[in-house]
Backbone:
C-alpha cells in the first residue's frame, strides 16, 4: 500500500456500509490474474462492479484498455478516440453512497482525460471537446447510485443502466456508431431482451379508485427512442418521439 492512500473514511461508514477501499497494489494484482486479465482488457467486455466505491477496479481496467488501444493504433488518433470511448462505455458501477458515486465518476473521467491528453500530445494534437464531453456523459450515466441488493435506487425507483451497442465494427472501422438502450437492473437479472434504442419509461403509479369516483383522464406519456449516433457525439443524447 502506498503511503498516501486513504482506505477508510470513518469507523461509522465501515460499520454501516462495509466501506473499506482496496489498495491499488491489490487491485492491480487481482486484475492481473491470468484468465481474468485477457478478457477484462477487451474494450467490448462488459464489467459491472456492484459496490464500486470510488472506482479503484474500474480505473485500473480502463487504464489497461487505453494502453492496449494506444499500442494498437499508435499513429491514429481518430481510431484511438472511437475505441477508447467504447472501452469506457462497457464499464459500469453501482454504489450506495452519493459522495462515492461522485468521486467515482470524476476518477474515471480524469483517468480517461489524462491518458487521452498524453496520447494526443505524442501526435502533436489536442483532445477534442466532443470526445471529452462524450466520455463525461457515458461515465455519469454508467455509474449509478443505488442499492445493488435491493436492485433499486435510494428512493425506491428502478436502477437503469445503458447499453452502448456498436452497430458494425469491421477491421478498418474508424468512426463507430452506437445505439443506446436502457435496461433496468431487474431486466438484466431476468435476462430480458430490450428493443435497441429503448428509453426506459417508468410505469406510472396507479391509484385505487372508489366505487363512485370519476375515472381520471389519463394522457398517454410520450415514448422516445435513442437514435444511432457516432460514439464521439453521444453527449448530445439524441432521441426521437415514437408512436406509443
Ligand atoms: C468494501 S467497499 C469496496 C469499494 C471498492 N469496490 C473498492 O474495492 O475499493 C464496499 C462499497 O460498497 C458500498 N455498498 C455497501 N452496500 C451497498 C449496496 N447494498 N449496494 C451498493 N453499494 C453498496 C459501500 O458504500 C462501499 O463503497
Residues:
Amino acid at each position: 500500500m502506498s503511503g498516501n492512500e486513504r482506505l477508510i473514511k470513518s469507523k461509522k461508514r465501515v460499520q454501516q456500509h462495509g466501506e473499506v477501499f482496496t489498495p491499488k497494489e491489490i487491485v492491480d494484482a487481482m486484475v492481473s490474474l491470468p484468465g481474468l486479465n485477457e478478457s477484462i482488457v477487451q474494450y467490448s467486455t462488459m464489467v459491472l462492479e456492484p459496490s464500486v466505491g470510488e472506482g479503484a477496479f474500474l480505473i485500473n481496467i480502463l487504464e489497461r484498455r487505453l494502453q492496449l488501444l494506444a499500442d494498437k493504433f499508435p499513429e491514429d488518433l481518430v481510431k484511438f478516440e472511437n475505441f477508447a470511448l467504447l472501452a469506457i462505455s462497457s464499464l459500469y458501477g453501482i454504489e450506495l453512497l452519493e459522495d462515492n458515486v461522485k468521486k467515482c465518476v470524476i476518477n474515471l473521467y480524469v483517468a480517461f482525460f489524462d491518458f487521452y491528453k498524453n496520447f494526443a500530445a505524442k501526435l502533436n494534437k489536442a483532445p477534442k471537446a466532443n470526445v471529452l464531453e462524450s466520455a463525461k456523459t457515458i461515465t455519469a450515466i454508467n455509474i449509478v447510485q443505488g442499492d445493488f441488493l435491493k436492485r433499486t435506487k435510494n428512493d425506491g425507483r428502478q436502477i437503469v443502466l445503458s447499453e452502448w451497442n456498436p452497430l458494425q465494427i469491421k477491421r478498418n472501422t474508424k468512426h463507430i456508431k452506437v445505439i443506446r438502450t436502457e435496461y433496468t437492473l431487474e431486466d438484466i437479472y431476468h435476462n430480458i431482451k430490450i428493443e435497441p434504442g429503448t428509453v426506459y419509461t417508468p410505469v406510472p403509479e396507479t391509484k385505487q379508485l372508489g366505487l363512485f369516483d370519476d375515472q381520471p383522464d389519463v394522457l398517454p406519456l410520450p415514448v422516445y427512442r435513442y437514435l444511432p449516433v457516432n460514439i464521439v457525439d453521444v453527449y448530445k443524447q439524441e432521441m426521437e418521439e415514437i408512436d406509443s
In short: Residues 11-148+158-202+220-242 form one domain.
